[in-house]
Amino acid sequence: MRASFCFIGFYLISLFDSFRLRLFSFLLVRVAAFVFVLACLYLFSL
Q: How many contiguous H segments (helices) and E segments (strands) does the chain have?
């Protein structure tokens, strides 16, 4: 369940990343992906 949630979320982030238009949104997506990965690692560690 948690793995599929992380996979779907990361897929959506990469999908938005492919449609980025500006450098700001590019950086925002990178930060969001990093935070999302950290959140997934935290969930798995529980």
A: 2, 0
